[in-house]
Design a protein that fits this description.
The chain is α/β, with parallel strands linked by helices and 419 residues long. Among the domains are: 138 residues, Leucine Dehydrogenase, chain A, domain 1 (Rossmann fold, 3-Layer(aba) Sandwich), CATH 3.40.50; 153 residues, 3-Layer(aba) Sandwich (Rossmann fold). Helices cover 47% and strands 17% of the residues. It contains 15 helices and twelve strands. The strands form two sheets. Strands 9-8-7-6-10-11-12 form a seven-stranded mixed beta sheet. The longest helix is centred in the last third of the chain and has 25 residues. The radius of gyration is 20 Å and the shape is globular. It binds nicotinamide-adenine-dinucleotide (NAD). Nicotinamide-adenine-dinucleotide binds next to α8 and β7.
Amino acid sequence: MLAAAVEKNAYDVALENFDIAADALGLETDVREMIKYPERILMVTLPVRMDNGHVRRFEGYRVQHSTVRGPAKGGIRYHPNVTLDEVKALATWMTWKCGVVNIPFGGGKGGVTCNPKDMTMTELEHLTRRYTSAILPMIGPKQDIPAPDVYTNPQTMAWIMDTYSMTKGYPVPGVVTGKPIALGGSLGRNEATGRGVFYTTLSACEHLHLPVKDARVVVQGFGNAGSIAANLLHGAGCRVIAASDSTGCVYNRAGLDMPKLMLHKEHTGRVSGFPGAEPITSKELLRTECEILIPAALENAIDEDNASGVKAKIIAEAANGPVTPEADRILESKRVFLIPDILCNAGGVTVSYFEWVQDEQHLFWESQDVYNRLERVMKTAFGEVLKIHKDHRVTMRTAANMLGVGRVAEAIKLRGLYP
Ligand code: NAD
């Protein structure tokens, strides 16, 4: 349940998962000390003039967990529940995620504690520009490259790119990814996370010999990642029978009409009230009988209280950290096949990498090139994680962490300890 999300410390979960992977890899203590914790943390106070003329103070963070394999990379989240520990956890996961898909980035993350739903576009622009100038010494195309996360979007990235470029005196599109196409964004970036979830889910179905046609899909969090994954699965013949967002859940046994639901969400800003579907509660949504469950909202959505009620065969973690370690153990005992977050949702950072490459080269690719390369990266990573899962008889989560942590460990051993 997302209510529990606030109570469970995501950073403790990240550290626990690191230890499990490090133990399985037999990693030396010195190496653990060098790669486990964030390299750099910046906390900023952001005074912003609101539309009513008054100044309001916000708190923001930027965390660089690792720059061992390349510049730090990771999104910026605007949400009322953002805390430093949450940002540290998300930055840590980014490091292992970039390792899993083998792209030359480390991990970073940023966040501002705010409620964007209660803010106007002007206020959001002021906040974003002030936040950008506050974290400016830390970011840059060779240092640390932000991207969108929950409640930030291509427009937010455009403001960051502009603020950074104005202070430099020349345009620097490579400072952020997930930008609008007109500013050097990549074709296929907006749907990359959902598309990556789609590819890994297809791989999981293939592995389990589970027919895609008519497979029932339930998605919690009908935002960028969740709605696009659901729509692609719908296109592949699945039946998306339930979907939710922060305002409610909708259900239709025969399958929700995905393109229509996406339009409804676009026009009304919510899934609830969608004609041709009945409302259900968020508890019922997670208990819905289905083949594929996609948690695509926030951390700790599936915990020890609700995990035993999950009836899915596959859980595709589009969100970061949606399943707690206790829930992991319950799902494992129920033989639910888990596609862990750092593998499942790595499509976003992979196409961010493609975008950064295109910006640096000033040479842009066709969308089909992006999809083909993404599919290759996701299927390779899935195969590598699955092999570790089988060879070492560890869970899919531990296998993914072993792959990611192992790549960072290899890099730090080669670099050595400075000075
Ligand atoms: P988004 O803001 O586009 O969508 C989030 C959705 O979750 C919204 O529809 C919101 O209404 C819904 N939501 C919030 N609280 C909820 C609740 N209590 N119950 C049900 N739904 C709820 O964000 P997004 O970019 O799709 O990110 C979703 C998750 O995917 C996050 O965990 C994020 O870190 C992860 N992720 C996103 C990307 C990306 O490129 N967008 C990449 C990797 C991981």
